[in-house]
Amino acid sequence: MNEPVYALNLFDVSSKEEYLAYSRRSAKEVQTYGGHVVALGKYRESIAGDLNPRSVLILVEWKSREAFERYCNDPALKDLHPHRINGTSNYIWQLFDKLSDLRPILK
């Protein structure tokens, strides 16, 4: 399946230096591999639900699951991803299918 997917990233920054090393390079690499950042956010408040809040939200739209996998698994980026891992804590990373409306879920 070659449909767009959204990657939801929720996390806390545990090392500013490590995360800066990741973020300085990752914006360009995400674009190179077929993704673009749709939203960046800083935690504000909980309205409903029981998920422990994370301080940062990043939502990335990828051209496909395959594009996302190439970004995650390309050996050329093996030195990049450890900065994300070492610079964050409480990481939640989930993929969502892009939908034009909710009909597929409500069938």
Task: Describe the 3D structure.
The chain is of the alpha+beta class and 107 residues long. It has one domain: Alpha-Beta Plaits, CATH 3.30.70.100. 35% of the residues lie in helices and 32% in strands. The protein has helices spanning 16-32, 65-73, 81-87, 103-106, and strands at 5-13, 35-42, 56-62, 88-97. Helix 1 runs antiparallel to helix 3 (81-87). The chain starts with a strand and ends with a helix. The model has no long low-confidence stretch (mean pLDDT 95).
What order do the helices and strands come in, and which of them pair?
Blueprint: E1 5-13, H1 16-32, E2 35-42, E3 56-62, H2 65-73, H3 81-87, E4 88-97, H4 103-106
Helix pairs in contact: 1-3
Question: Distance between termini?
Answer: 20 Å
Overall CATH class = Alpha Beta
SSE string, helices as H and strands as E: EHEEHHEH
* Alpha-beta classification: alpha+beta
In terms of DSSP E residues, the strand content is 25-35%
**Biggest pleated sheet:** 4 strands, antiparallel
Gyration radius (Cα, Å) is 15 Å
Number of strands: 4
Helix percentage range = 25-40%
Shape: flat
Strand order of the largest sheet: 2-3-1-4
The number of helical runs is: 4
Kindly report the CATH topology: Alpha-Beta Plaits
Instruction: State the CATH architecture.
Output: 2-Layer Sandwich
Number of domains: 1
Mean pLDDT: 95
Low-confidence stretches: none
